[in-house]
Queue: 2 jobs
Job 1
Amino acid sequence: MTTLQICLLTSALLFATGFAGAVTRRHAILVLIGIELMLNAANLNLIAFWRFGPHPELLTGFIFVLFSMALAAAEAAVGLALVIAIYRHKKTSNLDEVRDLKG
Amino acid sequence: MPITLILTAVVLLFAAVAAMSLRNLVHCALMLAISFSGIAAIYLQLNAEFVGFTEILVYVGAVAILIVMAILLTRSGEAPDRSVLTSGWAAGVAVTAMVFVILGWAILNSTGLPPTVTPAPSATVKNIGDVLMTTYVLPLEIIALMLTAAMIGAVIIAFREEEPKEKTKMEDGRWKVEQPSTLSTPASSLQPPASTGEKA
């Protein structure tokens, strides 16, 4: 097994872990944590392909990861703000109880 | 076989599984910080030093703290008495297993992966800055605009709704007189997650 395959397998396991958490846990913050883990798995793939790909000097995968991190930070901020707004409105952060769009 | 890479990956995956399965949310956030550090360590071993340190700054420094703030603000710091899983969790686990099997099969059987290890590329800060300011200057500007919009949106969403009485007070200017720094007042009285997110 090459180093690239080890990185890709790690990333696949990380993605599966994050996905399992996002679809099975009840708490809204845990779902956001799962989404962060999935985004990180994608970033790990991009860096691995940048490192072992044919043209690493172009820095494409590298720059893509930097942009993706900025997006993930924005997503975390907006997502957690939504969780706090829902908690203030409904006094719960259990996703099974948040099932209507109208408060 | 790069033994340090495998060890880092094992620690990272254990921390990730713990972050997704512990009952206490504060423990989950701490395990999340450990798994982010593991990812940063893997980046360092793949010669992506800048991304590794950015990962520590952005994720361990900002996102993990933001999540802890959100956990404490929603008063979910202690473990619940009821089940922490959703009602349809078995279907979720089945879909997850299917996703992993397909991904693993594709990785292990792919013939398109580059077989040889190339010499380490140079990703110095100078190279990154050059590329960001020439080839990727438009995406950089767009991401800056997007980040600003997202931060303003997060502030507006998390901002406490005021009574209509106070709003009319704001419109006829008395509020400005009472508090001299009009622009910085909303930002300083924000909820902590929004203000922490601005640094990210």
Job 2
Amino acid sequence: MRTGRFIAAVMASMLLVPTAHAASDPASEKLLKSTSDHTKFKALQQEFNAGPEVTKACLGCHTEASKQLHKTQHWKWEYRTAEGQLLGKKNVINNFCTSIRTNEAACNVCHIGYGWKDDTFDFKSEVNVDCLVCHDTTGDYKKPAGLAGNVVTKEMEYPPGSGNIIKPIDLKKIAQAVGKTSRDNCGACHFYGGGGDGVKHGDMDSSLASPDKELDVHMDALGLNFGCATCHMTEGHQVPGSRYAPTAQDKGDAHVRGKEYTTNPTTCQACHGQAPHKKIAKLNDHTDKVACQSCHIPKFARGGIATKMSWDWSTGGKMGPDGKPLIKKDAKGHVTYTAAKGDFVLGENVVPDYQWFNGKVRYTLFSDKVEKSDQPVRINHFEGSAGDGKSLIWPVKIMRGKQAFDPVNKRLAVVHTAGNDDTGYWTNFNWEKAVAVGMASIGAPFSGQVDFVTTESTWPITHMVAPAKDSVPCHDCHASNGRLEKVPGIYIPGRTSDHAAWLDTAGWALALLTLLGSLGHGLARVIAYTRRK
Amino acid sequence: MARIYIFKRFERFWHWAQAALIVFLLLTGFEIHGTYALFGWEKAANLHTTAAWTLIGLWLFAIFWHFTTGEWKQYIPTGKNVVAVMNYYSVGIFTGAPHPFRATQLSKHNPLQRLAYLLVKLFINPLIWVSGLAYLYYNDLAATKIAGLAGLQLGSIALVHTAAAFMMLAFLIGHIYLSTTGHTPLAHIKAMITGWEEEYANEPPAAVKQ
């Protein structure tokens, strides 16, 4: 009886705990985590007319912030690989919108700065660093396309004469509410890469803003609720885990406190270690060849948002019966054709391709020669092989494209697409003019002719990790024509193409001959026995 | 008709348990190989592993039993009567001639059986056992640092294991058929179940009497 009463009392007291919490002031609870209330800072109690004014106020206290950011890829958009290729958004070409060059005013709304509209942008300016785009907690902060990353503080019509009115944002309110970077901040750009929700990556789209457990076991909003930075553990504004220099194979142990680590903290192993499968130990035997992602991300674009799988620029420029640029949509309402961009194929719940990957990515850059006989041109490709000791089998999204190139100079074209001018392809539908401006911007020769080549680009699949129960079943790979059918250099039990055909033939022949011999012998015995009677 | 007790209780248990395990291992093994889908690959692989360990356990008991009882001597090959037994299976069996061999407790197997079972025990079984363990512990081979083991490719291991499986399959088929060649088609099988062999009426030729 006593015990019963005691338990009842304990349970009652446990029930009271959350009630006590709920009763406390939400504002003061927030303060428990941060020592600063930005609404109380004098520097932020003013009307801001432009983004850099806010940054100036931020720098008043956070004196070294911009200096830190100047060193990041988010600011530089430039990255030199160990092999010497100069990459980064500033330098690469892709097979989505192809290149930021001459299109900075539109594309660079995703630069963490204000005003990068052309080559004259000052990368040393501290006030041009945009603090708010990553630290806004209100969700009101907007950087409209076309304004080179600047924000709108007074109502304006854009493009001029379009009738499209952009509402101003309240920088004071936003600045006073700054906080830690959330999924929404990162997602504002990274979910929308390639010009729309989910377009580019396939494993990153707005469904990850508040995913359920099935979509992402770690980011599950009602469960573990990881933010981006839970894995991309950022220090001094340096965000680790860039796809320009991925860690294809991590042989390190799980990171623990009190130890210094120089390895990438974003890998699965950085938390899970080398032998994460406790129930079925055999699964640990796969980790020397197969990346975690290959089994644990069964499909990409799983959150209900389609990703672009191919993009054919060559069909652009068609006008509808009304004389206006043509737009086509599929049954689901996804745009599959626009005059400005050509034809798209979209995909949802896509089974990835699989490749050996050693962490090295090679790009075809503007300066590289492109031959039509080499189609599809590999915009980038993952290096690696079964035998190099550094590669694992990785899931990838292969993006297929058909894009402009100069058939005489044999170069991929830089196309001036966005812009309210006489040469932007999206408004004038004239390839020659658009490419002429684009090529001139990088100082490349242009023959005046525009042709199209098919291209392929490769994107690592590493987000949208499913719960263990939904991981790829054994028979998806341990089979003929399975997911790994085309992965060379490895023996996969169950994959017929790995068999020594002679052995199978000889083995079955042996078994069959033994059977036939036995049956023949038996039959002869029956006949002989019958005759003897 | 006289009966003699040939197969002891453990021996019969060992035989039938082994038979069931081998059939099951072949069934699951060829699914893992990719020949057909029956249990589903994962289940087939798990069952195959469990059955393999069971069989290894059984073999350890059987080896112990063979040595402690001296029964291992049953598999010492003999040249005596090999030709006579071969003649019986190729000619005599059709003419109704008596089997030239008479099983006794000291000599249960005819010379051909001795050879066949010895081949299974000394060649096919070890081949399956060793290649199977290498298959199972493939990832740990490199750590052994034993030359010739550390550098083994899974494909080669699988090749040997599969080849051994085919040999076992052929043995199984032949063995099942030959079990019907007693003085009645079921005589041998009955003996393997009850342990008792019936001595049939025909006396073997005096020359080959044991």
